[in-house]
Amino acid sequence: MATWLAVGERITAWRNAPTVLWSTSFSPEPDSTWQEEAGVVVASRTNAEVVADGPEGRDDVLEVTFGEDGSRWGMDYRHSFEAMGLEPREEVWFSYDVYLDEDFEFIGDGKLGGLAGMGESVEPLEVSSGGEYDERSFSVRAMWRENRGVVMYLYARHGDGKDFDDEDNYGYGIFEEFTKADGSTDDVLRPGTWQRIEHRVKLNTPGRNDGVYEMWIDGHKGVSVTDVQYRTAEHPDLEVNAVLSSWFFGGGKDQFPTRVNTAWTDDWALTDGYLGIRD
């Protein structure tokens, strides 16, 4: 059973108060696990565990470890809305807190969490990602860069003026940089402090480039793309129905951490509007 009150109990302390569709703060009931409460339906990498004592005094947070045994992986979980007790959505916001250790290595293009949609014939691990796009699904995540910047990492037919199979995309998704209030794109992520990332997906009219993707970090909207084609005319029933927790270093052959790196995450929420940050 999902923990709706985990974030919901504190919602009045946040600047905005949309309807919380689902949330968890990684404090599962005694007869449950965090994976059950987070709607996990499959996992391929599991270097993540709930720890009682998190950074800056937080209790019960999810600790993600990268670089153990030379691996690039932290975690790779696929979360189903159905397993969370939710119906698929045409529009939804997904937000979470993240804390990177103070000497975290920003090597290559590292992936963080986001949203996805997949048709009934698509297995969770086959959702569009990893250099492969299938019109029966889409995904969009946050991705870090070596300059500590963040980009939208989109697998869809079209977005930000580009088709997925445009030569300039190299077949690895569509990117849009997160721009800070001062116009810069460096140092968006700040190791050693909690930050909040929030995604918004609004689906397109099937076959048209009129879908929306937006990303906020710490209450600032740094990505806004309004020409996304998440679903093609051939797949009009595709909806947002999954969270994609695919956290790892790179993708490129040289994008491995040189040692163990740690991140923590907390206060996940799916909402019907912008949640923002605490006052």
TrEMBL record:
InterPro entries on file: Polysacc_lyase_14
Pfam families from the UniProt entry: Polysacc_lyase_14
Coiled coil segments of this chain: none
Domain Polysaccharide lyase: 74-262
Protein name per its UniProtKB record: Polysaccharide lyase 14 domain-containing protein
